[in-house]
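Changelog entry: the Lipopolysaccharide export system permease protein record was regenerated in this release. Current contents:
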Amino acid sequence: MKTLDRYILKSFLIPFLATFFIILFVLVMQALWLVFDNLAGKGISVEIVLKFLWYTTLIVTPQALPIGVLLSSIMTLGSLSENYEFAAAKSAGVSLQRMVRPIVFLAIFLSGINFLFLNYVYPYAMLKQLNMKVNIKKKQPAIALVAGSFNTELPNFQIKFKEKYGEEDNLLKEVMIYDLSSKRGNNKIITAKRGEILSEEGSRYMTLILKDGHFFEHHIKNGASFKEREKMPASYANFDEYTINIDISSFSDDDLEEEKYKTQYNMLSLAQLKDTLPTMKQNYDEYITSRAKNLFLGIDVEDLYKYPDSLINKKLSVDILDNFDLREKQNVLITATSKLERTINNNTDYKETLKNRRKYLNLYDIEFYNRVAFSLSCLLLFFIGAPLGSIIRKGGMGLPMILAIAIYVLYFFSNTFGRNLAEESSLTAIIGAWLSVFLMLPLAITLTIRATKDKGLFDINSFLAPIRNFVKNIFSKKEKTTK
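Regenerated structure tokens:
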């Protein structure tokens, strides 16, 4: 390796390592802050917290790498330009392309490292961390309760509430509870305007205090028929305060590192995604075909076919309803209307299911293409940061930091925007995953060309020259006419 290459690599690696670890620390702290309430004071050991932080570090590393490359490339090239080292190299006959060649190879190497992280380390860390989150919530069941939907984590109970609030997040609004302890379905329903969760560390019970509510229970005997159930008595009452003790001892024995979820899209490598996607697409196509068949069967489309002219009864009116009397017309219209409404209601009910199935499939499809697209972010952002640094000719942490943040926010926003559009089927998965690359690549090419030709970021003269020439031509023509 030549002395120039060693010097350029050293100039790049020192700010790269510094910025990479700083950014990595910030991203880890941000992720920790989001789950801090679920970890602090919940009886979680220090070992588990450290493992959680380690998995978080592995997850955010593929995000920190491209930011570090972008910022350090702007700082390095900006510093070399600011200190006239590029000018000295050019005067010695060394071109810009030759000077940055070792950093280009390093950026390609870092893109490869990023791909390996995304394909092997990232899925492993996601699997470990997500299962750990689920197990921590089960360790503290109050944490697992989510507003707006029925929570089924607690044994023998299904709980739904509108809002969770309070300093300890243990106060509930508009609570509805299905008590399933009798093993006879949801025949016991409790509603309340307010609720409070009380649980002590190490206790086998979680206490739920309900206030200002209503109690209803339908008494059903085993083996009773449907008609007999309708005649069976029910009891109901209003209450000011009602206490429920829920046995949560089954949660205390759970291993916090137990792996129950292993097939989510972000837990699979590219090879596993490639094997999973064909089966998922086949199941989705079979579901679509099944729904289409049910639709056609529901509206009796198979009975609509053309008769030969010789079999058509000439006495029948072209308007079908004219062939029936008034009462029969009413029956036909009522039957048709009810069948149409039933079909529309069925389609409306299945619309959300179909949308969720498609969205679930899209997540796997997008993840497959995004792994490759995002791994190239190191190389792409280098070809934006390096020429930009040589153009602005400013090193240090001031202007380069601002430019790096602005560029990465634009890249990350376009990547997220493309993925969201593809998730909703507004774009194909491959276009959604590569959208950020398509948008940022012209900027990288433009900056690289301008830096190679030693042009500024914006050449104002190129815009003003045509206007200046136009004005000169007008005045020259006026002078000729006056003469």
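Strands lie at 157-160, 163-165, 171-179, 188-198, 205-218, 234-247.
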